[in-house]
Design goal:
7-stranded mixed sheet, alpha+beta, 7 strands, 31% helix
């Protein structure tokens, strides 16, 4: 597996992965959104044999870094790809001078919540009916250190 910074030529592959990973209620990113974020934020992808199998998008044009999206192809889950993407993101976030990372996660996404807790995140608060299908979200945070 290779983890690298996304390039504009990766936008189409990222969009395909996005459609596989997130339903419309979860506000999936468009191809144009990927192009924007590749140029303006931190966007890393994981490749296996040249195929994009995961990505992480971190918004950095703000007071606190925010993990906006983390997706891994269903066929490649449970291989620690998310953990590796998160670890790399934490290094980059620290290098940019951020000390805190935020994210929102569906309250019914137990696997993601467990991963984030394992990586050191804690629940900060709950947003009612955050997603398009009415599902609530947890706001989670991580204080990162060197």
């Amino acid at each position: 597996m290779i983890i690298r910074k996304a390039k504009t030529s990766d936008a189409a592959s990222l969009y395909v992965l996005e459609k596989e990973s997130f339903s419309v209620e979860n506000y999936p990113l468009s191809r144009a959104s990927f192009l924007y974020h590749i140029k303006n934020n931190l966007l890393y992808l994981a490749e296996v044999e040249g195929k994009v199998v995961g990505y992480i998008l971190v918004l950095v044009k703000r007071k606190n870094a925010k993990i906006y999206s983390l997706g891994v192809s269903k066929a490649y889950r449970n291989r620690k790809i998310s953990q590796e993407l998160l670890r790399l993101a934490f290094q980059e976030i620290l290098a940019l001078g951020f000390k805190r990372v935020l994210l929102e996660v569906r309250t019914d996404n137990e696997a993601a919540i467990a991963l984030y807790k394992k990586m050191g995140f804690s629940k900060l608060k709950k947003f009612k009916a955050f997603y398009g299908d009415g599902c609530d979200a947890y706001l989670m945070q991580l204080e990162i250190e060197k």
